[in-house]
Every structure is written in structure tokens, then in C-alpha cells.
Batch of 2 targets.
Target 1
Amino acid sequence: MTPCLPGRTPGSWSFALSTERLTMNDHRRLGRELGIFDTDPLIGSGLPYWLPAGAAVRKAIEDYVHELERRDGYLHVNSPVLGKRELYERSGHWAHYAEDMFPPMEVGGEEFVLRPSLCPHHALVYRSRQRSHRDLPLRLAELGGMYRSELSGVLGGLTRVRAIQLNDGHVFCAPEQAAAEVSAALDLIEAAHERLGIRAARYRLSLRGDGEKFVDDPAMWLRSESVLRDVLRQRGRPYDEEHGEGAFYGPKIDIQIADPAGREATLSTVQVDYFQPERFDLRYAGGGRPVMVHRSVVGGIERLVAHLIEVHGGAFPAWLAPVQAVVLPLSDAEAPAAAEVLRRCVAAGLRAELAPADRGSLGARIRAHRLVPYQLVVGPREVASGRAAVRLRDGSQAGEVPIEQLAAQSRPFG
Ligand SMILES: [Zn+2]
């Protein structure tokens, strides 16, 4: 045996489930039981933290979305989670969105605000270089923190939080490119939903409402609404129009999801914005003003994971599962062979753990790991062959499958 890893055994993910029957898929209860996340009053409400199993799911999503965006021509950037108050005055957030923002912090005579969105930072990234028409569309993406001063009464689990890790992106394009970019963003969203195993409850065209929450420029709204409406009609997908649900700067196509109780929330969104390019005086050579297409493929990671827990009841697709393979020696006699199988799983890139024989009968250990996609049983026959017999979580036997093949099946892009 040639060791290819330092001699460390992966720690337990605290993933073993109680053998109680899971009833309702409430993400708060299931999320704690699966070791996805937890909260502590000393950190504060609306500020959950991610446990190892949750951090593994989150990393899998982040890697997947990053790669999906990369293949679609996005360039990734990173920007700070706060900025000067003047930045948000310029973007319009201060005038239209202040009640959802944390109050400013004074440092050295300046006021800083935890950002309520990533758009202003990305507008400045655009503005940092000379741009010409042939640089467009410029697609920038970032998975970054944003903050919302939600009242503690409405906070719960991962669905309403004060610190959001947002999959965000902004396409800076010429006006005549906007419709195609909106449609391309919807393609990306639909591909991601399919891979994640989730279904939209409905598509919503969210329009401006009355009052000072919305920028008062009727001609601008008409223009941006007609881009979104045309794309929706062209794609032939049914949608509802709702007034008062738009962003302060423009209308949105919102892709709504529903929890088991039927409560709706927005997961993915595509928006057309003529307002912030003007506020930041964005230009491209020749005097053109770009349009900003804001889009989020999977929304905030917190809300997405809450939804995934509920949709899959914890039985995530293999590429997302916190533990993808569990190694089950029949008895102590197979312990060395099981350790070798585990080592090969980890080396092949699988998230794997060992359930040794002293943790109970094989049946009890399988029940405790019933959400793990691949259960690798190691008995005397497998010791002789140097392989493992793969049991799937629906109880079926897949026979002896090479570990490299299991690893390949456990990647989002195969
Ligand atoms: Zn934005």
C-alpha cells in the first residue's frame, strides 16, 4: 500500500442520524439534525453559522455556481462587504432602501455602512477601466456578503437572516444587448435549478409600486419593463405581474420557490437597470451608456440551502451530499481494509467517512447513514478482492463499483 495522503483520518461530520423516522421536512429541525447549521444567542439572531456538513454543502454549491458562471463567460471579482455612506447615497440605496440597512459606523471621521447589495461595488469595478463597445457585454460575478437589518421577530433558521452570502452578478452591456443577456441569465438559472433538483413555484414580473421606495422616472420604468416582458413572452413561460415588488431602481423577473407550507420566497432574479449606470456615470467609448443587468442564479446561499434541505429531505444529490460515501466494515477483522477503502475515497475527491463495527450492527450503521448516497460495505470477500460492495441509499445493490467511478458520478459536471 502506497500512502498518497498524510496519515490523517477524516474527522466525523456528526452526520449519523438518530434512527427516528423523519416526518416533516422543516429545514430548521432537519438542518440541525444533519449538522448543517446552528445558531447561538451570543452571536445573535439571524446570524446562523455553518457546521462542517453545512460548510461542505455550501462549498459544493459555490464551486458549482462558480464553474457554471465561468463557462458562461463571467469574470469573478471580490469586493469589500462595506463601503462609505457616500457610495450608497450615490447608488440610491440611501434614499430608497435605508430602512433595510444597518446604521452607519463612524471610523476616523468617516461613516461606513455594511453593504445592502453588491451592485455599487460592481459599478465601480466597471468604472475603474476605460471600456469600449467591443468589451461588452462585461459579465462580472461575485459570491459575497451583504447585510439586512431584519427585525428579530421575523428571523428564523436560514430563510430570514441578517448576513447573506449572495451569488450575485452584473452584466454591463449595450442597450441593444440587454434582452439577449436577460434571456441568457434565465438559461443559466434554469440549468442550475435542474442540477440542484429544485422547481420554480412560478415566475413573477415584479414592477414598481407607489411611493418613494421607487425611483420616480416613469419613462425609465416603461423601458426596462418592456425588455423583461418581451423576453418572458419570447420564452413562452407563464408569469404573473405584480406591482410593488420591483427593486427601487428597476423591474425584476423573480423566480419564486415555495416551502412545504406553501410560503413563497424569491430565489433567483434578473433585473434591468438604467438607473445606477446613470448615477455612477458609467460609459463606454463613443459616449454610450451601458445597461446593468443584475442577476442572481441561486440567490442567497442561506435561503437556497434551507430550500434544498426541505426539497430533498436531507437526501441531497450525490454531488451536494455532505458525506458522499460511508465505509462500513462488517466486523473488526475488516478494519484495515476499510481504512484503505476510506483512504482511496478521500484521495479520489469524495467526502467520505468510516462507520466502524463498534458503532453497532451493520443494519444500525446503514440506518444511521441512510442519507449517504454510497454505502461501501467491506466484508471478507471484499478484503480478498481489494474492493467494496456499493449499496445505494434506496437499498439497491450496485455491486463492485470502482471508487474513481463513484467520484466521477459525484461531480456536478460529471
Ligand atoms: Zn445588483
Note: DSSP finds 13 helices and 18 strands in the chain.
Target 2
Amino acid sequence: MRATVLYGAGDVRIENVPDARLIEPTDALVAVSRACICGSDLWPYQLMKPGEPPRRMGHEAIGVVEAVGAEVRTLKVGDVVVMPFAFSDGACVFCQEGLHTSCIHGGFFGTVEVPGAQAEAVRVPLADGTLFVLPLGEDDALMASLLTLSDVMGTGHHAARAAKVGRGKTVAVIGDGAVGLCAVIAARRLGAEQIIMMGHHPDRIALAKEFGATDVVSERGEEAVERVRKLTGGFGVHSVLECVGTDQAMRTAISIARPGGAVGRVGVPHYEAIPASEPAFYNNLTVGGGPAPVRAYMEELLPDVLEGRIEPGRVFDRVITFDQVPDGYRAMNAREAIKVMVKP
Ligand SMILES: [Zn+2]
């Protein structure tokens, strides 16, 4: 079968690899009908060091169950499923608490250990706990939005939860990538009154406004902080959704949160220590977040997608075939595309 392999910075290839197959009795084999390139894929695409082992990429997919192991109970061949970016048993103490990304038996797709979903098929460990069966056929028009439940919509929702977004709150979203845009949807869905999008790509800003952003701040650094303060009566926002993962983004996040506010961070951190610890302390800020337990959010978000109340699938502005995957990485990395869907 064909699959995406990252060999080094800027070097991503489509290759023929051994077919994915069942290994454990709790596995399912899923034929991938749609996958994505993720903003987080761009980190190794930019930074992978020579000598690091090749990685089979991809952690977001919708597909059709092709085979199940002997111990799989809830899935059957032909089911249309969403694959969350992490696999989990759905049963351990952390899964029961809704924190599936800390599953004792779980792990992440698209790592050196677990082959990813930018491929014709993917082996899904702990399939009963991991996969989410959709009540629709695989060609339904809602598939783009349902595909975002794999990662970006659930991750935006997690940022909003960690930042304690609620009715009437003021919110800032840092980052205008697909997660940031989904974070706008999530903030609005949870009742935020003011949603300030911080980003500077015109196409993304336009989409953010359609998703519910009430203000846009395109400045960076100190100027951005000043603008947010001006927009919020001098105090800053209740909730900051940090969807980038750099030291600068985190510093800005802490600087624009009002006293007693919260920062929800979902950008994979590329800094050693959380910056600005003094203002965070003196302003009594809560800093939370981490890898989103998107599996836990699927039940909650599904009805809103099915009934058209949210349309996170609009973040996909390019659909490509497998042959075009290297160019898809290049385009996302060059910010020519917001989010790329891979459709074999
Ligand atoms: Zn678990």
C-alpha cells in the first residue's frame, strides 16, 4: 500500500510500504477514505534532524473498517469511523475521567512507533475504545466537518474548555491556523461574547470572522498586547486560547489574560519553560491544556456537526491525492493552504 514517510526536514515522500494488517486481537484495520495534513506535522517537517528514524505520518482520518481482531466487540466490517489522533482503551482510570490522551494503554498515531493515517490503510490499536462510528455513509457532504473531529475541532474545543470559556466571557484566540479557527467556533459555541482573533493571514481572518470572531488583532508582541487591552476596557480577556506553541505566543497569552483569567494551550510547546511566570502568578492566572482528548468530545460535538450548527470542515481549502502529499506539506508550510485534506 502507499503511505507518507517523513525522512528529514523538507523531505516527505509517498512510498510503497507493507500493507497495514491486524496484529493484536483488539486491532481494527481501517481503509482510509480521508486523511489530513496537520499543523503539528509541520514541526517535524521543519525541524527533523539528520539521523532521526523515518516517520509514517498522519494522525487524522475517516475511513471504513475493513477487518477486526477476535476481541473487538463494538465494531464491524463496513462501519464508517473517525480516528482520533490518539488511541485509547476507553476503560482505564484516565479514559473514565475523559482524558483519553493519558490512557494507560494508549499512544499517538504517526509516531516512529505507530504508523500514521496518511496512507491507504491504518492499523488501529484498541479499536473498541479508539474508533468512533459515524451514523452516515462515507460520501456524505458532512465528511469534511466530521473529519475535523479527529483533531482540530476537538483541539479547539479543548483549548476553550481549558481556558474556561463560558457564556458572556471575553476570549482571545492566538493563532489563525486550523486549530485557531476551530477554537473560534468552540468559543462561540460555548457562549463567548467577544472573540478576538490574533493572526495576520487575510484568508484565515476572513474565515475567523465567519466563524464568530468579533475583533481582529494583527499586530504582534507588545503592540498586540496593547490592542487587546484597548479592546477589553484595559483589563485583558477572561480566556486565552493558545493555538501556536511558541514561547512568543505563550508570552502574549499570559500578557493579555485579565486577572483571574485562564490560558488554554493546545499548540505543541516548542519552548523549555512556560514564560512570564511572574505576571501569571500576580494575576492569579490558570494555565492549562495539553493534547486534547478528542475522543471524549466526539459525542458532544457530533450533533452540532450533523445539524449544521458548526461547520469546522470549512478549514479545508485544498483537497489532494496521495501523489500530491509532498506538495501538500509544502503548501501548508508556506501558508498557501490553511488545511489540506488527503483523499486517495
Ligand atoms: Zn484508557
Note: The chain has a mean pLDDT of 96.
